[in-house]
Amino acid sequence: MAQEVRIGESIALPQGSWNQRRDQHLASTLLAELPFPPNLGDRVLRIVDMDIFAHGLNFVFGEADMIGRRAIISN
Fold this sequence. Notes:
By secondary structure, the protein is mainly beta. The chain has one helix and six strands; from the N terminus they run E-E-H-E-E-E-E.
């Protein structure tokens, strides 16, 4: 079954996601601050071109919020 894909406008990164000591952005903050506009459908994927991490891990390739149907990935 084919799914419709729409590309939304670029949004600013939340200031609280940056960790200067690690020189990385915290994935959970990027995910939590990701708006869920109703005109974008029932799932939202944020793609970032920076290094992201999760607490306890050096880096992650992505993180998902299954209940909110949002996800973030880093290229």
